[in-house]
Each structure stands twice: as structure tokens, then as C-alpha cells.
Amino acid sequence: MELKINVMETTNAINFNFEELKNKITTKSELYKNMVYTDDTIKTAKEDRASLNKFIKALEDKRKEVKKQCLEPYNNFEKQVKELVRIINEPVTLIGEQITEFEEREKAAKREEVERLFDETGFEPFVKLEQIFDPKWLNKSVSLKSISTELKNIAERIKNDLAVLNEISEFQFEATETYKDTLDISKAIAEKNRLVEMQKRKAEHEATQTEQESSEVEEFVADEPTFAEWGEELDDSKKWKTIKMLVSESDIKELKSFCAMSGIELEVMQ
Question: Quick one: average pLDDT of 164-182?
Fold first, then answer.
């Protein structure tokens, strides 16, 4: 069914005494444009301005009145057209709901086909369909054949990425775990580099601490008083014994202090 809308216009133009009003207003405006007011005639200036504003108000009031009259038939027309559109929209909405339901069923069915192709492609066990799923695969224009090809290409890329990660000598496990979460080899390599850099900084920090502790021990040994300084004589019954101990630098410092207070002579062998 084809609708033919017939609109009958009642007026084509708005006619009024434009030229007459223009001549009067122009003459009066020119008069006032050349008017110079002084401090003594400010009252007159206010009266003249009020008189001119009355002209403006009269024109604007008439414009609004005519506009309302002109728009009244259009407003009625618009109201009637909207009523007709509402009537048509009712079946349009119902049809649209059925179309949407049908398309959702189609997408659900195609999603099952995609899942089947995913299982048949032979991905690594850690790969989930959600990680690689492309919503465009559910479009009617995308064939299952093209989806299958794309899945195989993704599986091959993952295989190649894992081969690259297997060649990593440091933090291979951490890099691989990152890849499993992201399927992004650049992020996996970045994580490996981050851990390498952290390990390097940690080693430098520990080396600095060890150096400082060694320096403190040497200073302590240098300051430790000898038996001669304490005025004690070595006991002939004492003999040198070699004792092997697993201690830290701080343990050595405490051991030297204990031996000194106990009258035991201690020599640290490096």
C-alpha cells in the first residue's frame, strides 16, 4: 500500500504595510541618531528611549501574534501526523521483536558451530574460546569456512609464540604464565624483562649491603683491644683449635665480641 498525502495550503505569504512602516521608522531613527543629549537633557533622553522601545515592543508583539496564527494550522497538522505514526509503529514494534528473536536464535546456533570448530582446531589446553572470540563471527555474512581458517591461523600463531618463549633462559615460567593469560607475546616478553631488571637491582642491593657489613666488621676488629692491652697473659694450657662455622658477617661480629669478653683469642680465616 502506498500512501498519498494531500496537503492544502491556505496562505502563501503574509502581507502588511512594510514600506510605510519602514519609511516612518527610518525617518524617526535618523532624527534620534543625530540627537546629542547634555547633562540637563538626560530626562529627555530617557523619555525618547522609552518611546523608541515602545515601537520595538509593538513590532515584536505583532510578530509573535502573527507567528502563532501561522503555526496554529501546522501544529494541528503535526499532531495529526504523529497520531498516524503511532498507529503504524505498533505493528512495526511487534514485527521488530520477532525479527530480533529470530536473529538471536540464529546467532546462538552459529555460536555452537563456532564452538565446534574451536574444539576441532586443536588449541593448546590453556586457550579458551573467550580469549580469541570475535563477535563479527556471528554475523550472517561471515562464513563458517572463513571462521575455521581464522581459528587455524590463531592456533598456529600461539604455537609459534610458545616456541619463542621456550627459548627464554630466564623467567621462562613467569613469561609463559603471562602469555597464557593474555595470548600476547609482547606482554610476556615485557614481563620477563621486568623480572630480569628486578633481579639485577636486587643483586646490586645485596652486594652493597654485604660490602657495608664487611666494612663494619673490619672496623670492629681493628678497634678490638688485644690481650696484651688488657694486661692479661696467655695461658700455656690453651691450644689453637680450628672450628668451621657457617655464619653471616653480623654473626662474626657478635662472636668476636663474645670471645673478647670471655678471654678467648679468635682468628677469622677467610
Answer: 94
Our CA angle for 259, 260, 264, nearest 5°, is 55
Residue entry with cell 588449541: 123
Domain boundaries, the chain: 40-110
Torsion of CA 225, 228, 234, 240, to 10 degrees: 40
4-18, 154-168, 221-235, 239-253: range with lowest mean pLDDT:
221-235
User: Cell for 104?
Assistant: 538471536
Q: 28-42, 88-102, 174-188: which has the minimum mean pLDDT? A: 28-42
Q: What is the DSSP letter of 171?
A: S
C-alpha cell, 244: 668451621
Q: How many CA atoms lie within 13 A of 253 on its CB side?
A: 13
